[in-house]
Design goal:
It is a single chain. The protein is built from 25 helices and 24 strands. The chain is α/β, with parallel strands linked by helices and 848 residues long. Among the domains are: 224 residues, P-loop containing nucleotide triphosphate hydrolases (Rossmann fold, 3-Layer(aba) Sandwich); 214 residues, Rossmann fold, CATH 3.40.50; 133 residues, Arc Repressor Mutant, subunit A. Strands 3-4-2-5-6-1-8-7 form an eight-stranded parallel β-sheet, sandwiched between helices. Strands 9-14-13-10-12-11 form a six-stranded parallel β-sheet. It is globular, with a radius of gyration of 32 Å. This is DNA 3'-5' helicase. It is an enzyme of class 5 (isomerase). One of its GO terms (cellular component) is chromosome. Keywords: ATP-binding, Coiled coil, DNA-binding, Helicase, Hydrolase, Isomerase, Nucleotide-binding.
């Protein structure tokens, strides 16, 4: 039996033990050789030398890649500035052309020497009628942003793409022209909640509008279809009072109801089909943040109804999405709405920045009871009588939050719940109650709010981070639509991001979008407005989010008052005192974390965000699990003193923030692993990890070429402590369960004395997945020859299955598979440590 058969492993099965022991025995005598004094074979030395050379090459590659990333970031920043100045030049040239032309455009607004300026011309024949109707029906005196230009292009029968910020008044741009023109305007909208809100608003204004959805009463649906047929058959004049001016439906209705499609055909043939309006048009593109498959079936509109103008509306439509949208709908090429040719799709965009929205990110407690109380305190202190929305991570969470806000405030906060499982009748009832003020705060998932036309929403709170920065912008933008000051608050802690990674692992660009959201939340210096304008999930670290090189560039965040790169002056980061911001050199701490992550990964171990934080801080005896396939799992212990010169000396909250920042900087990475029970995200060494890992501690402390900084705001890392309230109910009546670690005699008994007490936490989970752990693909099998055998040892924890737990907001109460216990630790006659692993005994290799 050759030693080479075993030198690549750190364990052997009991069946092979006799043969294995022969490799440690002198063949000239029957006396066994002492393991502690035996010299390693030549093959081991050769493997070690090769491994050291490989690690050195890996480090050089990582260093070059790091420089490439830095240069790419610099290039992207310069590209953003180039786009901004190009936009300014275009605006100045357009202004100069207007001054020189002096053209008097009338009627259709077409001039001989210049394009049509739909936004600034006053000579359109319908101009007075538009403003008069706007005042009489909607009570609005003046247009905002690009509303007037879009209305003019609409009246001119043009194909239109309009990108306006959430709350910018997109609905007016098609509702107002629909009242002046003949025929019926068909509006395709993604959510019943949005349709319901629009119908309520229009009916209050006296506008003849109907919706066709599955939740409607049969009588109401029959009446709407009857009136549409009368219009299609010419039995109801297009301008008669009973004629339907606007008809709302979902894309699913168009895709699945052939009889309805036939009715649209009759409206078209009779000349009573005025226009198609596609609201939330970014849902049409798979490149958008909220793709809907049925939206892509809207390509039939241009093919089947070629003479009907199409209008696409969105609050966020980056260039790639815009290009995809135009292609799918079969629209002609884009032309500028302020200098439009006679042919083409007229494009309008307004500054996405809204100065009346004040963004703030607050530290989120780990314990749900504290979180509820913080939210109650905030609402009662800042918005006691105001209307607001609280966005929650899941349906179950939205119900619990609504209940707790109501109870803890002693009914001073009147709440309602909205999510996909709420019955249609209840949704409509909630809409009415929210509009009339009997319900002040709606606790909801993202199913609520698209296009909600309620101007006096004074605050939007995010109980957890959104899946993308784009989604966060839209959701928070539902505040302050009346132009008055409103607050947008995000409660954030690093582990919330881990919940979302596993949920979007299969979505296109899902992980990169979440990383952009985390970059936004972790930044305590940069103005939130500038972050919105510059963060892009397609780059690492993220840059230029809403701008990717074309019409929707960084300039979309410029206004007449300020540049896109000028600080807003009123977000939390702009108002933060400079003396509260601290830059900390965390190169040594980063080195230790990367060493731990590398050792665990090479050993075939799997570690989550929380687990890596605990390992690096020396908690739990440095233990982690290694998956041995069919043999189950083996516990290993890491000697931090030997490997890293000691543990990382920062508290749990700070190290979790550091871990997120290391992920964003590519020193760490996340990998997703799906089991039969849940999806988990694990932390693994990232692309740049070798740039530090190959260095010694002395190199790190004296002359490390690459420094890692962590910027923290004093007082921002930990939420303020509160006295425990009566949030918790008994087990029989509570929807909020607690998770506690046992004290003396339990698993927590072996904790370090310097543990700062912040490890007892309530894990926030959702019914779609498991707790707040990060994810990966299955870790590789145990890797051999990767660390000194004195620093890693297989260990047994007899209490590992005995911890009493009950879970906080549980996504799934399905039981995990039973764990295999690692018992029966003993010493063989040769002095080796033996442990029982299933039906086999495992030998722990160690030189001590």
């Amino acid at each position: 039996m050759d030693y080479d058969d075993y030198d690549s492993g750190d364990y052997v099965a009991s069946d092979d033990i006799p043969a294995f022991l022969e490799t440690f025995t002198d063949t000239s005598t029957s006396k066994p050789t002492e393991p502690s004094t035996s010299k390693p074979p030549a093959s081991y030395v050769k493997d070690t030398t090769t491994r050291q050379k490989t690690q050195h090459i890996d480090a050089q590659i990582a260093e070059k890649e790091a420089r490439i990333l830095e240069y790419e970031q610099d290039i992207n920043k310069l590209r953003g500035l180039v786009q901004l100045f190009k936009h300014d030049v275009q605006e100045l040239r357009r202004e100069l052309k207007q001054q020189l032309s002096g053209a008097d455009k009338k009627g259709k607004g077409k001039a001989k020497d210049v394009g049509i300026d739909y936004g600034h011309d006053t000579g359109f024949e319908w101009g007075k009628a538009l403003k008069g109707q706007m005042k009489r029906v909607f009570g609005i005196d003046n247009f905002r942003l690009c509303q007037e230009g879009v209305c003019n292009a609409n009246m001119d029968g043009r194909d239109i793409v309009c990108v306006m910020p959430t709350g910018g008044g997109k609905s007016l741009t098609y509702q107002l022209p629909a009242l002046l023109g003949a025929g019926c305007t068909l509006v395709i909208s993604p959510l019943i909640s949005l349709i319901t809100d629009q119908i309520l608003h229009l009916r209050e204004a006296g506008v003849e509008a109907v919706m066709l959805t599955g939740s409607m009463a049969k009588e109401e649906k029959y009446d709407a279809m009857r009136r549409l047929r009368l219009l299609a058959e010419g039995k109801l004049g297009p301008r008669e009072g009973d004629a339907i001016k606007l008809c709302y439906f979902t894309p699913e209705k168009l895709a699945n109801d052939k009889s309805f499609l036939g009715l649209i055909q009759k409206l078209y043939e009779s000349g009573n089909l005025a226009r198609f309006v596609i609201d939330e048009a970014h849902c049409l593109s798979s490149l958008g943040h909220d793709f809907r498959h049925d939206y892509q079936k809207l390509h039939i509109l241009r093919k089947q109804f070629p003479r009907v103008p199409i209008m696409a509306l969105s609050a966020t439509c980056p260039p790639l999405v815009l290009k995809d949208l135009v292609k799918t709908l079969g629209l002609p090429p884009i032309v500028d709405g302020y200098n439009a040719d006679d042919e083409g799709t007229v494009y309008f965009t307004s500054p996405l920045y809204r100065k009346n929205l004040h963004y703030k990110i607050l530290a989120k407690p780990a314990k749900s009871a504290e979180m509820y109380q913080l939210m109650v305190d905030y609402i009662l202190e800042h918005h006691p009588n105001d209307t607001g929305i609280v966005y929650c991570f899941s349906r179950k969470e939205s119900e619990i939050v609504a209940q707790q806000l109501k109870e803890l405030s002693q009914n001073r906060i009147r709440t309602g719940t909205y999510h996909a499982d709420v019955a249609a009748a209840q949704k409509e009832s909630l809409h009415k109650a929210w509009r009339n003020g009997s319900v002040r705060v709606v606790c909801a998932t993202i199913a609520f709010g698209l296009g909600i036309d309620k101007g006096d929403v004074r605050f939007v709170i995010h109980h957890s981070i959104s899946k993308s920065l784009e989604g966060f912008y839209q959701e928070s933008g539902r505040a302050g639509r009346d132009g008055k000051d409103s607050d947008c608050v995000l409660y954030y802690r690093p582990q919330d991001g881990t919940n979302l990674v596993s949920m979007v692992a299969t979505e296109r660009d899902g992980q990169s979008k979440i990383l952009s959201m985390l970059e936004f939340a972790e930044d305590v210096e940069q103005c939130r407005k500038i972050q919105f304008a510059t963060l892009n999930p397609s780059e690492t670290p993220p840059h230029r989010y809403f701008s990717q090189s074309s019409n929707l560039s960084i300039a979309s965040w410029s206004t007449s008052d300020s540049s896109a790169l000028q600080r807003c002056g009123h977000c939390d980061n702009c108002l933060r005192a400079q003396d509260t911001i601290h830059r900390r050199d965390v190169t040594l701490d980063t080195w230790k974390i990367l060493k731990v992550a590398t050792i665990v990964n090479r050993a075939g171990g799997k570690v989550t965000l929380s687990g890596l934080a605990d390992l690096a801080r020396g908690l739990g005896g440095g233990k982690f699990e290694v998956n041995q396939g069919k043999r189950g799992k083996m516990k290993c212990a890491l000697d931090l003193e030997a490997e890293c010169g000691g543990k990382v000396g920062i508290d749990k909250i700070e190290i979790e923030h550091l871990l997120i920042q290391l992920i964003l900087k590519k020193y760490l990475d996340v990998e997703y692993h799906q089991t039969a029970y849940k999806g988990i995200v694990y932390i693994v060494p990232g692309q740049l990890a070798p740039t530090l890992v190959h260095l010694s501690r002395k190199d790190i402390e004296t002359n490390a070429r690459r420094k890692v900084e962590m910027v923290v705001a004093k007082g921002a890392s930990k939420p303020r402590k509160r006295t425990r309230t009566a949030v918790e109910k008994d087990a029989s009546g509570s929807s909020v369960l607690r998770k506690r670690k046992r004290g003396a005699g339990g698993k927590g008994k072996g904790r370090e004395d310097d543990d700062d007490g912040d490890d007892e936490e309530d894990e926030i989970v959702d019914e779609h997945g498991e707790d707040d752990d990060w994810a990966v693909r299955p870790a590789p099998g145990p890797s051999r020859n990767l660390f000194s055998p004195t620093t890693l040892e297989a260990v047994v924890d007899d209490d590992e299955d005995d911890e009493d737990e009950d879970y906080d907001w549980s996504r799934s109460m399905r039981e995990d598979p039973p764990r295999k216990r690692h018992k029966g630790r003993r010493k063989s006659e040769n002095g080796f440590v033996m442990i029982k692993e299933g039906d086999n005994e495992i030998m722990v290799l160690s030189s001590d």
